[in-house]
Structure formats: structure tokens, C-alpha cells
Amino acid sequence: MRKPRLSVTRLAGLMLVLMCALTAEGVAAQTQAVDIRLVPEFTTIPSGGSVDLTIDVVPNGQQLSGIDVCISFPAYLLQVVDADSGTAGVQIQVDTSGLDVILQNNVDNPGGVIGYSAGKLSGSLPSSTFTLATVSMVAANVKNTATFRFSA
Fold it and tell me: What is the pLDDT of residues 48-76, one digit of tens each?
């Protein structure tokens, strides 16, 4: 009798639903591109396995005073692992090296949505690439293979 094969969940992406970067010059400066990337862009994880994704911000020379990100994911295949068990709800791991004031850090695992907002009230504003946060995800125990893409 043959052993069943371990299924693999392919995580090639999540969807960045809403991205808003606030520059020091205000709304008019938002016509210039600010890139937000989930890294790695493509990975394979086994059923029940986990992966860490960083949210990297590339301001392309602009000074950012704040950013708001909403990420959706297929909740039937992936779940976010809570980065702060001492705080009610599920959160992602913050990185305050670029933007040090956390305005929102909420995960709706059943709904498949991550909401994260951060800003900077004083000091020099970031204008070069920085990591905004890290999302730890675990794959559901499924027998099928699924592919997802990061998109903006």
C-alpha cells in the first residue's frame, strides 16, 4: 500500500487591498510612487508549516510620515500567528525602525484581513527602504495545492 503524499500549500502571494503612504508634503505628493512589498514574493510551505513575510516599504526618495496597509489572505488556507500574546486579539510583529508610532495593528483571521497603520511624529522621516512589519503565517492542514500572488 502506498503512503499518501504530503500536500503542499504554495504561497506566492496575498493581495494588498489598500495601501496609502503619507508623505511630508501631503496629499499632492502622493502622485509619486511608494512601493510596498511582501518578501518573499514566492515561497512553498508544507501543509501545517509556517512562513514569515516582511512588509518592506520603498519610499523612492520621498519622506514618509505615515502608512496604512490592508492585506487580505485566504483564511481557509492561511492564518496569522499572533506576535503579541500579551495583547488582546491577533497582531503582526512591528518594526519601529522607520515609523515608530503604531496606529493600528489588527488581524481578523476568520475574515482573512490584516490592518496595519504606523506613522512618525518627530525626528527625521524615512526616505529609504525600511521594514514596516513581519507577518508570521501558518498553512492550514489541507490536501490540495493552492497558489496565491502578491499584488498591489
Answer: 888 999 999 999 999 999 999 999 988 88
Kindly report the CA angle at 93 between 137 and 91, in degrees rounded to 5? Answer: 75
This prediction's pTM: 0.78
CA-CA distance, 109 to 135, in Å (whole number)?
Answer: 12
- Measured CA to CA, the distance from residue 86 to residue 10 in angstroms comes to 31
pLDDT digits (tens, 9 = 90+) for 86-133: 999 999 999 999 999 999 999 999 999 999 999 999 999 999 999 999
Residue 85's contacts (CB-CB under 8 Å, 6 or more residues apart) are: none
51 closest CA partner among 22, 91, 80, 77: 80
